[in-house]
Amino acid sequence: MNKKLKLRVTNSGLLALRHFKDLPDGNLFIAEAGRQVPFDIQRVYFINTLANPKAIRGKHAHRRLQQAIFCISGSFSLHLDDGRTRQRVRLNDPSCGVLLGTMLWHTMSSFSYDCVILVLASDVFDETDYIRDYAEFMRLAATPPAAKSRPLKGPPSRAR
Ligand code: TYD
Fold it and tell me: For the whole model, what pTM was predicted?
């Protein structure tokens, strides 16, 4: 992964971890909330044993959740889509991850046999935060933020 790569999609960016290379005695990588990771970390999960070379994971966006995704072993391709711009990034360096901000459709594919994905998330799991339908994602991505939070019109107020 080119550490100078510019991410053109919105709500994303490269995240560089502090690391100490001490080979052959091992490498140490550090992710701290508010430092290398721009949110408070409420959840950590990882994905391993990606034995199916045709596997495609993700295929969703989040309304409020922010995540930081790292490939801590092997490599995989991350496809990002903000509703206007699409970009593909090959993650193959444990010290360099990607911020998955809100409203960013993402899929993961082309996993190497030894791939392990680590994700740091800004909140605990909440299925209602997922957008799993691409057409709905595109519709929401095209809606200005003010219109999304505007309350629904109720009956006329009688208070006087
Ligand atoms: P999902 O986020 O769709 O996985 P991916 O994006 O890697 O393809 O999650 C797969 C399943 O696991 C889904 O049923 C929700 C569940 N899950 C949890 O219960 N808790 C979690 O923290 C996560 C990430 C997923």
Answer: 0.91
Q: Which two tokens stand for residue 154?
A: 């109720």
User: Which pLDDT belongs to residue 55?
Assistant: 96
**Residue 95, amino acid:** S
Q: 134: which 2 tokens?
A: 């691409």
pLDDT value at 134 more than 80: yes
Task: For residue 47, report the distance from its CA to the centre of ligand 1, in Å.
Answer: 10
The Å distance, Cα 79 to ligand 1 centre, comes to: 18
Verify whether ligand 1 is closer than 6 Å to residue 46 (CB atom): no
How confident is the model over 18-47, as pLDDT tens digits?
A: 999 999 999 999 999 999 999 999 999 999
The verdict on the CB of residue 123 being under 6 Å from ligand 1 is no
Contacts 24+ apart (CB under 8 A), 123-131: 123/42, 123/43, 123/64, 123/65, 124/42, 124/43, 125/43, 126/65, 129/62, 129/63, 129/64, 129/65, 130/60, 130/61, 130/62, 130/63, 131/60, 131/61, 131/62, 131/63, 131/103, 131/105
